[in-house]
């Protein structure tokens, strides 16, 4: 199959080259498309000649048929027209594999699918070195040889001594040690030194790494064969055919034939499976020439097997670096020289790093990179907390394990390396950027079940990224984003600790290059003056010269941000980009968009958060564009020409000054429309949302949705309202949703935030018929909670939503929600239940039946031991926000072996009289106490047992300055302060936004310590807290006012973590 595929591809490439001859094509778009096709075909041919690609097995037959049809079409044209000019219609036909998302018929969808396979095949090939074709381990840099150099010399002497003694025995030399100890570095250095010896020592050499894929043995043997063929003075005529072989036995036989009579040196890095050795060992003949096989492995199973099979085996056990070499390596990597000493304020941190790394070079190098970044972010005199090192090392070990063993996570992480540090994104932005293949494939399917299965695949990967701390949640900083009740809007960023590591790995494999890795990559074999993906985030005086040395026509993805100089970036040279992300580029100007509009193959364009003030009419030239993001720019008008981008699937206008959409708007396949925070007051009358899946109208001036625009809609996500707080802004526009709109949206899964004061009881009945609804947020006014008939209908609606996973109810202040206590059959899939401002008498009994509940926010007026037991037995509860509208008369006891999964506990109570028993809340990381002045209490009426919380890392106390002289508050703070000081964990104690630090004479603000996630428990809690009198201290309390724009970010962070599966 692959051999025949090569013939077809090479023939088609030749025909296209013929069409591209001077004078034969006059249409600019046509030349551009065909040049793009020719480059993609060339890349495919080059890589097909080296390795088999797995997608050929699944899509080869149907795709070949399409290619042969195109080839015959061009052949017929050339035969009939000789040297005549090529018509525009023919060019469109030839280039159709690269025009995407044309969904006018099933046949066209199929054609686009075959074409997309070709483009994505080239994408896969460009990063194929990561998994498959070039498996050679990376040579060590001189600075990485600390502690390695001496071992390499000893092994070199042993090898050369054996050669001088005319030793003819084939030997296996095994280098054994744990991950990161330097096995590969030592083996590659030894391999390099042996190759530098006179040719008679080892005239035939190869070095390969094992990877964890199902066809790893074929890939490894093919790589060895390729290196051997490259060293032959004349290769046999069948070399290409042999390279395409997929049978490992035949590959091994071919290698063995070429090694007969030769003294060879083969390095195999990272072998750990006995069956793999059984498959590949036949490639290495015992030809009595004194050959050597170098093996690195982390255990001795392979060694025992080799010995049992009669091989002559030498073993070298790698040991961690000694203290002196560890210190030298850290200083070299972190401070630039072995002779440089760390500043006095960093010495404790360096000592802790060396202690935690235990002499493992890989960990030392990674922590040195973190230390370098940490140094740049902190003031030179800042005091650094050594407790951070242990947490960082734990995270890194977890990520490293995933990186080694999970291919999906590894590849995704390398794509993420292109993001600048601190880049904030939502999961759909990540989806569009890293997984265009998944996105396109989903759009091609009409079967909902198959679509759902593919969505699950993506969200499984996304969940893994979160679970492994590869991406981490970011609290919203804008008041516009308060109280967001759908995880679609949760914000994420790449773990800063890992970003440099990922960028380094991406450059090593040739999959992507960043500002920091580009310089070292220029001229390397991994780059060969081409970079398929570039990410430029830092100004560099050398950047312009480096880009001039490169062939930028082969770059397909480009990210630019920060203060990168415009002069350094020749946008007109990036003619064949498919993905262009200019978010946060400070120097982007309106005239640059004229160059961008000549990038006819562009599929993704983001100018988000730049100074762009208008889109040019030439935007219509981007006929392949599927995603356009102009959010948070100065654009005030969407030109009518933008409506001519027929295949646009996602349009993001968030936070712009746009006040209306063009009347001509007829996006045929639009799936996502984000209008949040714009000045738009109505949708155009001829605007239809039939194919639209996500519509965000939050913060707009749209007061009414027109039912006729939503007929037969496929809407999945509808977001309206502002921040969910009732009467929070008298100027806010309430978007009324006709019940016919809800009735038409048969696929609705997320609805937030609906103001029920504008909805009739029949609206709730229609809502109850939405069987696929998974996330619902509503506002509930004071007068509604007294309407018993309406209450009953709401109960019935909630009970009907069997797939509901997230329910948020924003109540009017003082609302009694006790009627919810009579809910007989709650949705058992609920993972999040959030009721703000409204009060229950006690914990509703049905909450104890929610076995999946991970997030709970509730306020009650009484807490009995039975209520505590209900909460304590929620096995999957991770965050609890508990408001107590009373002063406890006795301590609230948290027993051992309960709240097993709880990670964060927020208590809003005038007097937090808590007692934690030994073993209570074993996984609690953060305890937050919102308190106010209570009656004069006894010394014992304070939190106790904090030293029994074995995983606690942070305690936060919030109260108004008007209550600072209260005796109850003083006793509570002092009691907590004493217990924190006694705890062995080194806990952060934050009081009213300031972090107390025993190492300094004063306290530091949370911002100064780079810990910006200390917040109040909720806006409602701030409003109802009392300081002995009914004083609105929010307006007077400066500390609370500074926190107001960050309300609930702590809670929303965890909501993001919990809702990634919804």
Structure explained in plain terms:
- The protein has 1062 residues and is an alpha/beta fold.
- Helix content is 36%, strand content 13%.
- It has 32 helices and 31 strands.
- The protein has a 22-stranded mixed beta sheet. A five-stranded parallel beta sheet has the order 2-3-4-1-5, with helices on both faces.
- Helix 3 packs across helix 5, helix 13 runs parallel beside helix 15 and helix 14 runs antiparallel to helix 15.
- The chain is globular.
- The two termini are 42 Å apart.
- The C terminus is likely disordered.
Strand residue percentage: 5-15%
Give the strand tally.
Answer: 31
Instruction: State the distance separating the first and last CA atoms.
Output: 42 Å
Secondary-structure-derived class: alpha/beta
Per the principal axes of the C-alpha atoms, what is the gross shape?
globular
Helix content percent band: 25-40%
Oligomer: single chain
- Averaged pLDDT: 76
**Largest beta sheet, briefly?**
22 strands, mixed
**What are the low-pLDDT stretches, counting only 5+ consecutive residues below 50?**
52-59, 81-117, 124-134, 436-456, 476-488, 725-730, 998-1055, 1057-1062
The number of helices is 32
Return Rg in Å. Answer: 32 Å
Topology:
Layout: H1 2-19, H2 28-48, H3 54-81, H4 88-94, H5 106-126, H6 149-164, E1 171-176, H7 183-195, E2 204-209, H8 216-231, H9 239-243, H10 248-259, E3 264-269, H11 274-280, E4 292-297, H12 301-308, E5 312-317, H13 323-335, H14 347-357, H15 361-377, H16 387-405, H17 407-416, H18 427-434, H19 436-444, H20 448-467, E6 471-474, E7 491-494, H21 496-509, E8 513-514, H22 515-521, E9 533-536, H23 543-548, E10 557-560, E11 579-581, H24 592-596, E12 604-606, E13 627-629, E14 650-652, E15 672-674, E16 694-696, E17 717-719, H25 739-744, E18 750-755, H26 761-767, E19 775-780, H27 788-800, E20 806-811, E21 832-836, E22 855-860, H28 865-872, E23 879-884, E24 892-894, E25 904-908, E26 914-916, E27 926-930, E28 954-958, H29 967-982, E29 988-991, E30 994-996, E31 1004-1005, H30 1019-1024, H31 1038-1044, H32 1049-1059
Parallel strand pairs: 1-4, 1-5, 2-3, 3-4, 8-9, 9-10, 10-11, 11-12, 12-13, 13-14, 14-15, 15-16, 16-17, 17-18, 18-19, 19-20, 20-21, 21-22, 22-23, 23-25, 24-26, 25-27, 27-28, 28-29
Antiparallel strand pairs: 6-7, 29-30, 30-31
Helix pairs in contact: 1-2, 1-3, 2-4, 2-5, 3-5, 5-19, 6-7, 8-10, 13-15, 14-15, 16-17, 17-21, 19-20, 21-22, 26-27
């Amino acid at each position: 199959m692959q051999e025949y595929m090569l013939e077809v591809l090479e023939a088609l490439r030749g025909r296209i080259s013929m069409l591209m001859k001077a004078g034969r094509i006059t249409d600019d778009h046509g030349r551009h498309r065909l040049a793009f096709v020719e480059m993609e075909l060339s890349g495919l041919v080059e890589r097909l000649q080296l390795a088999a690609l797995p997608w050929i097995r699944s899509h080869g037959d149907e795709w070949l048929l399409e290619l042969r049809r195109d080839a015959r079409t061009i052949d017929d044209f050339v035969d009939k027209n000789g040297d005549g000019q090529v018509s525009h219609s023919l060019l469109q036909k030839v280039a159709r594999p690269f025009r995407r998302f044309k969904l006018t018929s099933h046949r066209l969808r199929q054609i686009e699918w075959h074409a997309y396979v070709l483009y994505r095949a080239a994408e896969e090939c460009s990063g194929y070195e990561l998994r498959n074709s070039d498996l050679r381990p990376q040579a060590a840099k001189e600075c990485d040889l600390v502690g390695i150099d001496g071992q390499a010399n000893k092994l070199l002497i042993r090898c050369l001594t054996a050669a001088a003694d005319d030793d003819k025995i084939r030997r296996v030399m095994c280098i054994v040690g744990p991950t990161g100890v330097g096995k590969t570095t030592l083996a590659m250095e030894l391999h390099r030194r042996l190759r530098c010896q006179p040719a008679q020592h080892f005239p035939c050499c190869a070095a390969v790494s094992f990877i964890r894929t199902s066809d790893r043995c074929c890939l490894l043997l093919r790589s060895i064969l390729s290196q051997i063929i490259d060293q032959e003075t004349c290769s046999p005529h069948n070399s290409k055919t042999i390279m395409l072989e997929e049978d490992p036995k035949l590959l091994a036989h071919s290698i063995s034939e070429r090694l007969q009579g030769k003294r060879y040196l083969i390095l195999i890095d990272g072998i750990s499976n006995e069956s793999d050795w059984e498959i590949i060992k036949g490639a290495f003949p015992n030809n009595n020439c004194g050959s050597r096989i170098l093996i690195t492995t982390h255990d001795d199973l392979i060694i025992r097997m080799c010995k049992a099979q009669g091989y002559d085996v030498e073993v070298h056990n790698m040991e961690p670096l000694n203290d002196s070499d560890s210190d030298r390596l850290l200083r070299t990597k972190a401070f630039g020289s072995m002779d440089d000493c760390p500043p006095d304020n960093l010495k404790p941190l360096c000592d802790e790093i060396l202690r935690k790394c235990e002499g493992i070079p890989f960990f030392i190098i990674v922590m040195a990179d973190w230390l370098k970044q940490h140094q740049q972010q902190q003031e030179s005199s800042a005091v650094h907390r050594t407790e951070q090192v242990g947490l960082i090392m734990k995270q890194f070990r977890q990520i490293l394990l995933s990186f080694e063993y999970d291919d999906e996570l590894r590849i995704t992480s390398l794509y993420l390396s292109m993001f600048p540090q601190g880049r904030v994104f939502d999961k759909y932005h990540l989806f569009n950027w890293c997984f265009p293949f998944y996105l396109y494939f989903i759009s091609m399917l009409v079967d909902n079940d198959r679509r759902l299965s593919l969505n699950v695949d993506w969200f499984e990967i996304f969940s893994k990224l979160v679970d492994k701390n590869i991406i981490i949640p970011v609290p919203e900083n804008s008041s516009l984003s308060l109280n967001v009740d759908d995880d679609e809007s949760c914000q994420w960023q790449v773990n800063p600790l890992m970003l440099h590591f990922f960028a380094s790995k991406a450059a090593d494999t040739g999959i992507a290059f960043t500002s920091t890795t580009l310089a070292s990559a220029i001229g390397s074999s991994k780059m060969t003056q081409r970079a398929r993906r570039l990410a430029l985030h830092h100004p560099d005086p050398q950047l312009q010269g480096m880009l001039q040395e490169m062939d930028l026509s082969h770059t397909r993805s480009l990210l630019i941000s920060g203060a990168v100089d415009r002069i350094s970036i020749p946008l007109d040279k990036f003619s064949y980009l498919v993905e262009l992300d200019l978010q946060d580029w400070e120097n982007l100007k309106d005239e640059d968009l004229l160059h961008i509009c000549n990038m006819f193959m562009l599929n993704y364009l983001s100018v988000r958060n730049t100074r762009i003030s208008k889109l040019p009419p030439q935007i219509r030239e981007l006929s392949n564009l599927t995603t356009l993001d102009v959010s948070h720019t100065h654009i005030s008008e969407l030109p009518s020409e933008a409506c001519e981008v027929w295949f646009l699937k996602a349009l993001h206008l968030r936070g712009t000054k746009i006040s209306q959409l063009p009347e001509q708007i007829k996006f045929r396949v639009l799936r996502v429309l984000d209008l949040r925070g714009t000045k738009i007051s109505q949708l155009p009358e001829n605007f239809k949302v039939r194919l639209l899946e996500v519509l965000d109208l939050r913060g707009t001036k749209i007061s009414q949705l027109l039912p006729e625009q939503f007929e037969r809609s496929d809407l999945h996500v509808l977001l309206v309202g502002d921040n969910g707080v009732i009467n929070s802004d008298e100027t806010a526009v309430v978007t009324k949703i006709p019940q016919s709109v809800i009735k038409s949206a048969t696929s609705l899964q997320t609805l937030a935030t609906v103001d029920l004061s504008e909805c009739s009881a029949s609206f709730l009945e229609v809502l109850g018929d939405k069987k696929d609804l998974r996330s619902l947020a509503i506002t509930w006014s004071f007068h509604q909670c007294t309407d018993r008939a309406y209450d009953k209908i709401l109960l019935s609606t909630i009970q009907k939503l069997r797939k509901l996973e997230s329910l948020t109810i924003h109540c009017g202040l003082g609302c009694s929600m006790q009627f919810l206590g009579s809910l007989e059959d709650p949705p058992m899939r609920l993972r999040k239940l959030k009721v703000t401002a409204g009060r229950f008498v006690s914990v509703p009994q049905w909450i104890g039946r929610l076995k999946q509940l991970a997030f709970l926010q509730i306020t009650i007026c009484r807490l009995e031991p039975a209520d505590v037991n209900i909460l304590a037995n929620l096995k999957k509860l991770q965050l609890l926000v508990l408001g107590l509208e009373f002063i406890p008369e006795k301590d609230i006891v948290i027993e051992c072996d309960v709240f097993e999964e709880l990670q964060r506990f927020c208590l809003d109570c005038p007097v937090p009289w808590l007692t934690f028993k030994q073993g209570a809340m074993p996984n609690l990381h953060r305890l937050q106490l919102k308190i106010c002045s209570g009656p004069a209490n006894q010394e014992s009426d304070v939190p106790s047992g904090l030293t029994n919380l074995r995983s606690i890392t942070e305690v936060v106390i919030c109260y108004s300055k008007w209550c600072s002289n209260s005796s109850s508050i003083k006793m509570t703070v002092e009691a907590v302060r004493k217990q924190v000081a006694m705890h062995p964990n080194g806990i952060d104690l934050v009081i009213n936004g300031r972090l107390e630090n025993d190492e300094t004479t004063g306290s530091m603000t949370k911002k100064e310590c780079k810990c910006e996630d200390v917040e109040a428990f909720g806006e409602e809690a701030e409003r109802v807290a009392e300081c002995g009198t009914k004083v609105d201290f929010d307006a007077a309390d400066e500390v609370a006012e500074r926190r107001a724009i960050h309300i609930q970010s702590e809670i929303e962070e965890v909501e993001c973590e919990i809702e990634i599966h919804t």
